[in-house]
Amino acid sequence: MDATQITYRAPDGTFWDFTRPNHEVAILAGTVEGFSPTLQPSTVITPTLPGQTIDNFYIPPATGNLTLTIATTNKERFQTLISRLRRNFSQITPGTLNIRAGRLGTLSTKVRLAEPIVPPRVDPRDECEEVELKLRLVSDSGLWDAVPQRIEGTAMTNVFNVGDVMMYPEVMWDRGANVTLPSGWNVALPSVSEMHRLWMSPESGMVPIRVSDGWRDYGLARQLQPAYEGVPPGGDRRFMVTGGSLLFTARFLDPWR
Amino acid sequence: MARSLFDSLGDFQYKKYWQKFNAHRKEVVDTTGQWVGLLDGSGEFICDLPPVVSMSAPSVRGDSGSLELTIPVPPGGAFSDRVVAELAGVFAFGTSTDSQGRTQLSDAATRFIAIERAGLRLVYRVEFVQLVGGGDQPTMMTIHGTGLMKILARFPSVSNHESWPDSTRGWPMAKEEFPAVDGVPVPFKKPRLIYPVKFDNNPAESLVMGAAVDVIADHLSRSFITVFRAIGFRSGVEPFVVERIPSDIPSPELVLKVTDKYLWDDVMPAANETGVIIRAHMRFPGDLGDTRTVLHPTVVFTVQQAPPLTKALPPAFDPMSLLGSASPEELESSDGTPVGFMEF
Predict the structure, then answer these.
(1) CB-CB under 8 Å, B76 with A225
(2) Do the strands B298-305 and B240-245 form a parallel or antiparallel pair, or are they unpaired?
(3) Which residue among A185, A224, A229 places its CB closest to the CB of B78?
(4) Is the Cβ of A58 closer than 8 Å to some Cβ of chain B?
(5) Residue scoring higher pLDDT (B2 or B127)
(6) To 10 degrees, what angle do helices B212-230 and B263-274 make?
């Protein structure tokens, strides 16, 4: 198995590979913690019965920490790197953290800073050429997304869910499209002039997003008749789409497995 | 006016539509355990609702039941937009609020919330909604609804069926109100369709007698048919129907006084006293396990004789036993005919 790879795509598009050997910005060995949420089961306890019965699970946001080291001999370069890193992690706008560790391929999740990065160490002697940058991150969804599986064409296609939670389709279309859900229920998508995507999930607000610039098109949302059906974990369901394609993203709790 | 698919689609297409919709709800229940959706005034689908934050739906025998359901409506989003437009747009904006900020129901369109789980369907009529938000925009909506039994509290209890109009003959347009104040007709701001109906003031004619379960079922059914015929529903596709559930328990005799008020006022005290249970549920086309299928969403009132809650009732007709708690002075009217049988 390949070595674990951890990469990050900042909100502005800057790409960081924190696991490249001998690179000036890298993860300090042994500092990666967390990133899998601790599930909170809601339980029912009956006094006359042993144990507890699990009613439901709540998936909380996942927090995780990692520490980066910055190693460079060039003071100018050092300042640039520090500044860029601090700019690329935000408490407001999430970036995408990717982990390739286990047999699931690259998994990704949107992360924000859970706490601000500590201020730089002020050292009047200015001898500091190696610094540690401790990042405390939070993934609001609490889940790791696999590379999406795409279906298109006019036949009913079977989709398996290997993930840990319900999997809902994301439709991409550029004119008009019609999605047939597993029950046979049709969702007609409003006609558009360029590529849009829509995650047909109860978690989403069901807002179509224009792919070219990420514009959330509330006008189109008003023309939708929201209805959702998904694939339960471990199960399979048949979907069909005409005039577009469907993306299915299996989502996992543990990126390391 | 409700945009009913029942009127626009053909019978075959409508049946197919419901087959698909039934499959959709079943799929959501099978995979997530519960389906919650919004229905229009005809009982037809508007949209799925987002997962529920909290819900309380208490129900007791003899009461209409109520619903309090909170869903997230973050700004933007088709769920939010659609639900806010359908409920808050209809109910909230442009209508008045009371001292606690709750929107008042005006002449808003009828909307239903339906909740389904395996083997269970609860349907509530939306009465008012509250939008709650921490910041500058509302992010939660609490929907307050009442059970379908509440329909009885809004539906006329008809005494003189023959005097009600048949809509095919048309209603006269009235520009002035009937002599209202001191015999002077008052002009309407907007002309209305008005039809005079007769109220049976003669006590002897406004009494319906027989076995309690029959009297109650027949009276509900006849009132529905009369009123729906008057407002233009085709015969056989009335939105409310009555069904009798057979029971081994003999039904006591009942003398029902019809007052031309609301069905609830006339029927519920009698039903409680005689141990007749009235329930209401919404039946969809294609529902299984029911005695009668429906062509379109229909509110079915079931009437069933249950053991009375109090003492055993007499086996044969005994009018004195039905006087119940009526006070003695109500027992005789001026013309000597006993009235006030059901004044409990």
Answers:
(1) no
(2) parallel
(3) A224
(4) no
(5) B127
(6) 160
Q: What is the largest CA-CA distance in chain B?
A: 68
Q: Angle at the Cα of B337 (from B336 to B342), degrees rounded to 5?
A: 135
CA distance A200 to A226: 8
| Chain A CB contacts of B82 below 8 Å | 221-222, 224-226
- State whether A227 and B24 contact (CB < 8 Å): yes
Contact A218 B76 (CB under 8 A): yes
Asked if A19 and A98 touch (Cβ cutoff 8 Å), the reply is: no
Question: Over 90: is that where the pLDDT of A28 sits?
Answer: no
The gap from C-alpha A47 to its chain's centroid, in whole angstroms, comes to 41
CB pairs under 8 A between A and B: 75
Report the residue of B16, B81, B87, B141 to disrupt the A interface, i.e. the one with the largest count of A CBs within 10 Å: B81
Residue A116 pLDDT > 70, yes or no? yes
Single out the residue of A148, A180, A182 nearest to residue A162, CA to CA: A148
**pLDDT value of position B335:** 42
Pick the more confident residue, A236 or A216.
Answer: A236
Tokens 């015999």 sit on residue? B183
Residue B34 · residue B115 · CB < 8 Å: yes
How many CA within 13 A on the CB side of residue B34? Answer: 12
Of B88, B86, B76, give the one whose Cα is nearest residue B141. Answer: B88
Residue A196, phi then psi, degrees to nearest 5:
-125, 155
Interatomic CA distance for residues B108 and B95, integer angstroms: 9
| B337 at interface of A, judged by CB pairs closer than 8 A | no
Supply angle C-alpha B63, B68, B71, rounded to 5.
Answer: 155
> Taking all residues of chain A, what is their mean pLDDT, rounded to a whole number?
87
- Burial class of residue B322 in the structure, from the number of CB atoms within 10 Å of its CB (0-12 exposed, 13-18 middle, 19+ buried): buried
The residue-averaged pLDDT of A208-219 equals 85
pLDDT confidence tier of residue B341, bands split at 50, 70 and 90: very low
Question: How much is the average pLDDT of A219-237?
Answer: 87
C-alpha distance across the termini of chain B, in Å? 39
Provide DSSP, B225-263. HHHHHHTTPPTT--SEEEEEEP-SSPPPEEEEEP-SSBH
A207 and B32 within 8 Å at the Cβ level: the answer is no
**Taking the model in full, what pTM does it have?**
0.79
Distance of alpha carbon B106 from alpha carbon B128, whole angstroms: 9
Over residues B199-222, the pLDDT tens digits come to: 876 666 677 888 999 999 999 999
Q: ipTM of the predicted structure?
A: 0.79
Torsion angle of the four alpha carbons B277, B282, B285, B290, in this order, in degrees rounded to the nearest 10:
-20
**CA angle B111-B112-B116, nearest 5°?**
155
Q: For residue A239, what are the CA distances in angstroms to A155, B148, B272, B274?
A: 8, 36, 51, 54
